Q: What sequence folds into this?
């Protein structure tokens, strides 16, 4: 149940050198590109609040009946899902979506099947492309799209290792979503692998620390990736006194760089600090994960 994910969040030290809880004011949208960072740093979704100022052309949904061919592929896919034949099911479901990309109820049925086979990347893609109009605002009738776009992927593993390493599970979910869209086979251009996009050299070092057998393939095993990534994130949170911004900066840009930035920008508020991160990729990464973190807390956390 989603209730079990509600996690008492300790006071997060988001201000550099200060100790404050996540703010819950409205979206202020002060970032330079004028796209809200979803707090500058921890806003909760408010009903009726607007969350995207610019939305690329969404798919226009219709109530037109789906074609018989699309329905046929969907039903074949459903049978294969029930038989546990995941890759064959995916082929049928993809074909059905190509044939029927605009019928809302059809896409919802398709999404439910993707959820059953834990195909989170395709689930997120449908939400962001086909149901994007519902992600502009947070209303009662749009909650389904937010839950699709921010799924509770690998929930038992996330809960287990978040508990073991005393990390907020919503932070872990946000990091995995932004690192890999919950695709355990993901490989980045730089060579980072798996759900938590761990570099091979980092993975080898983590494995030695936690007594885990290491191989390149292990980085693409969901349980091992979440275990190793959780341990590493906890190490970074400990190193930076629970400061989520610095821990995320360290996860992406390296702990040495994050420590230098902490010293260099020690007097800044958290949003100013994020804007001052010299690495463009890390700056964008920290914003994306913080935004996802706020969304996960808003959708699934204690109301």
A:
């Amino acid at each position: 149940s989603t209730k079990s994910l509600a996690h008492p969040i300790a006071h997060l030290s988001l201000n550099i050198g200060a100790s404050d809880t996540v703010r819950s004011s409205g979206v202020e949208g002060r970032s330079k590109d004028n796209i809200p960072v979803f707090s500058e740093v921890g806003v909760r979704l408010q009903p009726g609040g607007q969350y995207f100022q610019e939305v690329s052309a969404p798919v226009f949904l219709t109530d037109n009946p789906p074609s018989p061919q699309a329905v046929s592929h969907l039903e074949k896919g459903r049978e294969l899902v029930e038989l546990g034949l995941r890759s064959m099911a995916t082929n049928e479901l993809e074909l059905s979506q190509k044939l029927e990309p605009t019928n809302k109820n059809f896409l919802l049925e398709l999404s439910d099947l993707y959820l059953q086979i834990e195909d989170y990347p395709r689930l997120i893609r449908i939400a962001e492309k086909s149901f994007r109009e519902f992600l502009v605002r947070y209303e009662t009738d749009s909650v389904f799209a937010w839950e699709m776009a921010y799924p509770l992927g690998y929930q038992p593993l996330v809960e287990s290792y978040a508990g073991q390493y005393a990390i907020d599970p919503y932070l872990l979910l946000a990091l995995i979503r932004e690192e890999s869209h919950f695709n355990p086979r993901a490989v980045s251009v730089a060579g980072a692998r798996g759900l938590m996009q761990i570099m091979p050299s980092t993975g080898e070092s983590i494995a030695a620390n936690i007594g885990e057998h290491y191989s390149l393939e292990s980085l693409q095993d969901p349980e091992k990736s979440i275990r190793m990534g959780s341990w590493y994130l906890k190490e970074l949170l400990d190193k930076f006194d629970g400061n989520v911004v610095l821990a995320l900066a360290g996860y992406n840009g390296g702990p040495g760089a994050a420590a230098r930035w902490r010293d260099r920008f020690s007097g800044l508020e958290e949003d100013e600090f994020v804007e001052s991160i010299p690495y463009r990729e890390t700056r964008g990464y920290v914003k994306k994960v913080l935004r996802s973190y706020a969304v996960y807390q808003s959708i699934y956390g204690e109301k």
Remarks:
- Residues 68-135 form one domain.
- Confidence is low (pLDDT under 50) at residues 1-43.
- Residues 58 and 129 are 6 Å apart (CA to CA).
